[in-house]
Amino acid sequence: MKVVLDCDPGHDDMVAIILAATHFELxxxxxxxxxxxLWRVTENALRIxxxxxxxxxxxxxxxxxxxxxxxxxxxxxxxxxxxLDGAELPRPTRSVVREHAVTFLIETVMRNPGTAVIATGPxxxxxxxxxxxxxxxxxxxxxxIMGGSVTQGNVTPVAxxxxxxxxxxxxxxxxxxxxxTMCGLDLTRQAAMGPEEIARLRAVGTRTAGVTADLxxxxxxxxxxxxxxxxxxxxxxxxxxxxxxxxxxxFRFAEAAVETRGAHTRGMTVVDQRHxxxxxxxxxxxxxxxxxxxxxVDAARLFDLVAEALAACP
Length: 314
Hints:
This protein has helices spanning 11-23, 38-52, 76-79, 101-111, 124-132, 136-139, 161-165, 167-174, 185-188, 195-202, 207-227, 235-244, 299-311, and strands at residues 2-7, 25-31, 59-61, 116-119, 143-146, 180-183, 192-193, 232-233, 249-254, 256-258, 269-271, 291-297. By secondary structure, it is α/β, with parallel strands linked by helices. The protein has a single domain, classed as Inosine-uridine Nucleoside N-ribohydrolase, Chain A (Alpha-Beta Complex). An eight-stranded mixed sheet has the order 3-2-1-4-5-6-12-9, with helices on both faces. Strands 7-8 form a two-stranded antiparallel sheet. Strand 1, helix 1 and strand 2 form a beta-alpha-beta unit. Helix 4 crosses helix 5 (124-132). The longest helix is centred in the C-terminal third of the chain and has 21 residues, at 207-227. The protein is globular and about 45 Å long.
């Protein structure tokens, strides 16, 4: 499968990049301000691909902030000032491509029929692509996102970070008619890594595995200081694995929207749990417009997938 990954690296975004580069023909990485300012997450994407020896994968920088308002700085609490604190990654030997990420997304998807898009940060770039090219939403073979929640949030009682960071963009995407898969907090919290799982990744023995383990341990410790839990969810890799290994997941369909105006609910993904629908024999919903929601994941097998990907890296 051909894929473009839109992200804001980010410790868990790094693992998502590794999985995507291993399992797909990764046509490009586009960046969006989120876990850290745009220039930092773009630098992080270049450094990650340098570590992997994948300088052939183009990187395009995109939106620095949301469609309305300013970029929140919540990500620093767990990802550090750089967005990827905890280990030294090699300096990049190249720069980003000249095209803006939104232009890159549109041109890549339209030139390569069957391309999927995976989005693991705020959905600003994706929403802008849908606004600038009306055919974009229906031209994306699949759109898998890490974002939202069926129940509680992580920034507010009801809002998950990526949806909360740009609710207007998220609502554009959720209402676009794209073949959307949502990997929200209810799902990603099932894939929490503790010290033992991180040690297992380190034991893979590759240079990339060691760096990844160092970064994940920083991420885990920062998360533990905030939540008290010794395990940290691997949020973003779930959105990659939902396309790379869908057999690890259970899915259901439902109507979903994003709240943009509520005083207490801005950024909430409102999933209609009254009318859950099981996938049909062909894996599709009974009617267009329903969101495919990942509800369960086999965490042990997901961690196996990550370990296998790290073993294939330098």
